Amino acid sequence: MLVIGVGNEFRRDDGVGLVVARRIAQECPDVTVIEQSGEGAALMEAWQSDETVYLIDAVSSGAAPGTIHRFSAHEQEIPAQFFSYSTHAFSVAEAIEVARVLNHLPPRLVVYGVEGQDFGSGLGLSATVEQAAHRLTARILEEINSPNDRPPNHRS
Length: 156
What we know:
The chain is α/β, with parallel strands linked by helices. The chain contains 4 helices and 5 strands.
């Protein structure tokens, strides 16, 4: 099992994926946790040999800040507009879709996106996104510990 935290901690809420991944690493030392910037080719390389992958990133879809989105990559496409603020030409959503076409998705890829509020320069999450990070950490830990009770794709 692999958990990938994506983001840039120097762009406020863009660091939420890193924060959640670090918390999971503290709670589940037997789970492999890595941090990525979100560059698509690096993501595809990172998940290449794992059966179950959780990817966490900040999103900007127009939903209320702190909204948590969940996608199962094998069941649906990841909306490209969620990652529209990415500084990479080859984004998270594009990496997933290219991997799907090339048949290089891991057997289970769950993508969690947390709706950001502040993507400006600086350290620390906004209060709303910090609360969402706590909820999401608990949700993923529950999923990791109960792999047969997989929640549906949803937004909360």
